[in-house]
Amino acid sequence: MAEIEAHITGTVWKIEVSPGDSVDEGDTVVILESMKMEMPVEAEEAGVVKEINVEEGQAVSEGDTLVVLEGERITPRPAASGRTGLPTG
Fold first, then answer.
1. What does the DSSP 8-state code read for residue 20?
2. CATH number, domain containing residue 58
């Protein structure tokens, strides 16, 4: 399980993920606002969003846990091609 923490003191401007979402390393999960600047907080590893511990507009301090990830990213199965392998002629 990985915890994504605030790297600055500020306000949660926007939450970019929902519980159950798969994220890759480097994906933005939350955007913080501090001193009128927007700063993305990125996932440091791939996983699935288990918990969101903040709300938009909430004040946070450096080190506060914003999002909790678990496990590995879930990769969707490729869509079926619709081919049966039978001749079509």
1. T
2. 2.40.50.100
